[in-house]
Amino acid sequence: MKKRGYYMTKLTFNDLGLKESLVKAIDDLGFTTPSPIQAEAIPVAISGNDIIGQAQTGTGKTAAFGLPMINNLKIKNAIGSIILAPTRELAIQVHDELVKLTKYEKLNIVAVYGGAPIHLQARDLKRANIVVGTPGRVLDHIRRGNLPLSSVEFLVLDEADEMLNMGFIDDMEEIMKSIPDERQTLLFSATMPPQIKKLSKKYLKEDAQHIVIARKEMTGSTIKQNFFEVNGTQRLEALCRLIDFDNPSAGIIFCRTKKGVDDLVAAMQARGYMVEGMHGDMSQIQRMKTLAKFKNGSLKFLVATDVAARGIDVDGVTHVFNYELPQDIESYVHRIGRTGRAGREGTAYSIITPKEFGFLKQIKNVTKGNIEKGNVPTVQEIYNAKFKLMANEVASIIEAEDYSKFVDVATQLTENHDSVKVIASLLQSQFKNQLSFDYSSDKLETPKSSKENDVRLFFSAGRRDGLTIKTLINYIKNNAKVGASQIRDIDIMENFAFVNVDNTIHKQVLEKCTGGKINKRRVNVEVSTNNKKRRSNSRKKAQ
User: Fold this and answer.
1) Dmax of the chain from CA atoms?
2) Is 148 helix (H, G, I), strand (E, B) or coil?
3) Which residues pair with 454 in a beta bridge?
4) 268: Cβ–Cβ under 8 A, 6 or more apart, which residues?
5) Are 376 and 238 in contact (CB under 8 A)?
6) Which residues are CB-neighbours of 45 under 8 A, at least 6 positions away?
7) H/E element, 229
8) Around Cβ 151, how many Cβ atoms within 10 Å?
9) Strand 525-527 relative to strand 454-459: parallel, antiparallel, unpaired?
10) Between 11 and which of 15, 36, 364, 402 could a Cys-Cys bridge form, CB atoms 3.0 to 4.6 Å apart?
């Protein structure tokens, strides 16, 4: 299997070997320069090679596999391509993008997923050329005889690692076994976990090419990233202050759990925000209606879990808010990839407590992202920002002389009252409902650091044992059953490692993680002697 990097040369879609009708469709969409994954993958796929495309979300993967697939598709009177996606939302998103790309082609594209009537999908499959679907529903149609496979020329696995995470690996294998071996397989994945590597070796041809977009692409340079450290009880107020200060055009707010989404939506709606939630417990119709409102601008904010947000590609998302940090680093990358798309500028804010600082540090180290500390705006700063917006709007109206219908009212008001008092009163009337939160003070409290409550642990495994930050975090999480946010400040040496953990869980980590194996090496865990000395000295000073 050959491994490739991406082209540094600036290409156009005309240079990639695509037929004129596809180039014209791309041109109609306003694109001229392919992204790195498109520049690498399209010529290779057109030549007939299987591909493993490793690139992050928001890098144009749909066109990277869709364009060569459409370009080379020979069968026009049967199902020639099957595309597997992890979620309904992503399946719908891929379907919609392919419809745009096939503007000048006579091809029928059908999306199949759970939560929609299966008999209607079966009817649509009779005229399909390209099928996009979730693994479970695709497999269901295959078993029912609704999805004939004898003519399939292309199989695409989109976000294969996410399908693995969601437990679809067996369904994926069954589908791959059922499709003719002569097919061309295009596998796209943000990461390459062992099971995906094994899958690719088993089902892709030996001359498959591995195309990797460099890690520096993980978090786009067009995305401004900041974090705001607050006490746990102040998350909601911090979020509202950031929204009131920045006044985003459209924003996605991420929570870890379905309950967290519901609670935050209720709290924000009570404060007058145009917001709705999206998570797996909602019906497909609910989710599609919510997404449609968000796309057309009638909904300003969308609160979602990581899984529900997969496949959401909405133009004009200016802000992503991590109301809670995700469970893993890859999810952070996927989250902030919802903004700053196609070279546009975007903003990603993370609201954290002191206990989560260690995990944020790991995110920074792995993604190489410049995540700077920010200060939650004061009430006065919010008013100043809103006044600036209003002053600019007033100046534009004066310049355009678009105020004639209010001249009589203004004349009456200034005849009876001082003009400055009239303007001040109008501003008060305008501003009294501008803040959605009942802010109790100008500034939020500064949170106390949690580092003084950390316990430093020694692990008898290091770099020579193949230990990485991710491996160690997963080992501790899986054995001690603790959250990643309780694991901080990891230092990996050649033969051993140090980890800070929350003092409330350190005994649990000692008990559950001692004696286990990391990459075949048995691990011993104990409290670091430096930590013991520090605590002993602290006690002596206190006595």
Assistant:
1) 87
2) coil
3) 502
4) 240, 275, 301, 303, 436
5) yes
6) 51, 64, 65, 68, 69, 72, 184, 186
7) strand 223-229
8) 14
9) antiparallel
10) 15
Report how far residue 110's alpha carbon sits from residue 353's, in angstroms, rounded to the nearest whole number. Answer: 45
Cα dihedral sign, 334-487-305-340: negative
Candidates 68, 67, 62, 78; CA nearest to 103 is 67
Counting every residue written for the chain, the total comes to 543
Query: Helix or strand or coil: residue 319?
Result: strand
What are the tokens at 114? 């759970």
Beta bridge partners of residue 490, listed in sequence order: none
Task: Copy the structure tokens of residue 273.
Answer: 């925000």
Q: How many Cα atoms within 13 Å fall on the side-chain side of residue 226? A: 15
Q: pTM higher than 0.85, yes or no?
A: no
Strand order in the sheet with 51-54: 2-4, 209-212, 51-54, 184-189, 154-157, 81-84, 130-133, 109-112
Distance CA 47, CA 390 (A): 57
Which pLDDT tens digits describe the chain residue by residue (543 residues)?
A: 544 544 445 688 999 999 999 999 999 988 888 988 999 999 999 999 999 998 766 678 899 999 999 999 998 789 999 999 988 878 888 998 999 999 999 899 999 998 889 999 999 999 999 999 999 999 999 999 999 999 999 999 998 988 887 789 999 999 999 999 999 999 998 778 888 889 999 999 989 999 987 654 455 568 899 999 998 788 999 999 999 999 999 999 999 888 899 999 998 997 889 999 998 788 878 888 998 899 888 999 999 998 777 767 787 899 999 999 987 777 888 888 888 876 678 999 999 988 788 788 888 877 778 899 999 999 889 888 888 888 888 888 888 888 888 888 888 888 888 888 888 888 777 766 566 566 767 788 777 555 556 788 999 998 888 888 878 988 998 999 887 767 877 888 888 888 888 788 899 999 999 999 998 889 999 987 654 333 333 333 333
Identify the DSSP state of 19.
-
Q: Which two tokens stand for residue 525?
A: 């865990």
Alpha helices in 347-453 (DSSP H): 357-367, 379-400, 407-416, 419-431
| Contact assessment for residue 154 and residue 48, using Cβ atoms and an 8 Å cutoff | no
Helix (H, G, I), strand (E, B) or coil at 522: strand
Q: For tokens 């004009």, what's the residue? A: 316
Within 8 A by CB and 6+ apart from 44, the residues are 4, 51, 209, 211
Task: Answer yes or no: are the C-beta atoms of 242 and 365 closer than 8 Å.
Answer: no
Residue showing tokens 């976000």: 159
Is the separation of the CB atoms in 312 and 306 below 8 Å? no
Q: Two tokens at 366?
A: 């792995």
The sign one gets for the Cα dihedral 316, 318, 322, 327 is positive
